[in-house]
Amino acid sequence: MSIKDWATDDRPREKLLKRGPGALTDAELLAIFLRTGTQGKSAVDLARELLQDFGSLKALLSADQQRFCQGHGLGNAKYAQLQAVMEMARRHFKESLQRGDALTSPEITRAYLSAQLRGYSYEVFACLFLDNQNRVIQLTELFRGTIDAASVYPREVAKLALHHNASAVIFAHNHPSGIAEPSPADKYITDKLKQGLALFDIRVLDHFIIGDGEPYSFAENGLI
Questions:
Q1: Structural domain contains residue 178
Q2: Residues near 202 by Cβ (< 8 Å), separated by ≥ 6?
Q3: Are residues 23 and 117 in the same domain?
Q4: Name one GO biological process term (predicted).
Q5: pLDDT digits (tens, 9 = 90+) for 136-168
Q6: Residue 59 lies in a domain
Q7: Residue 213 and residue 103 share a domain
Q8: pTM score, two decimals?
Q9: Between the CA of residue 16 and those of 10, 12, 20, 52, 93, what are the distances in Å?
Q10: Helix or strand or coil: residue 185?
Q11: Residues whose CB falls within 8 Å of the CB of residue 16, separated by 6 or more in sequence, listed in order
């Protein structure tokens, strides 16, 4: 059955306009992106098949060009369109935290850090430098690869913070596994960095772990 034959309130596009994007399933959101299905299949049917094929929406969105184009009904044009949409999202959140803007919304901070760090196949550890009024100075990627105590150097972090004349920092790193829970190493590194930066009167406001769902906040869970 074509989507045009569905009840109006069940059609993904109309449902989004009436109830907002949060009301849609992954398949319905993907169907709006696909726009059309294939012979005998609606866009929603095709979206469900693609999600089953890739395993998850995250896997589909982070697939490289070759793997993405292997999906039924996909190709270079859809890949280019998806990359453009994702880059626009990253730039949107980046503009929300331009240099000199104060951090007044935890939601924007989470969304921005998620857009920047989610999707990597390896760990990335970054630092958001802030002035004494919690205004953004710069987001800097500090380390790549497996994050452990041996790869994070408080002296180097402090050196960058002093270079930017930062009064506070927010750390963030991603978990490629998608599980946004802190490991013992994550907790140890955070404490080590907090103690090292305290010597220079630089505050650590939070440390976010970016996974598949809501980012984990050290501050909100009493770990800072």
A1: yes
A2: 158, 161, 162, 166, 167, 168, 169
A3: no
A4: proteolysis
A5: 888 888 888 765 544 667 888 999 999 999 999
A6: yes
A7: yes
A8: 0.68
A9: 10, 6, 5, 23, 21
A10: helix
A11: 23, 24, 28, 32
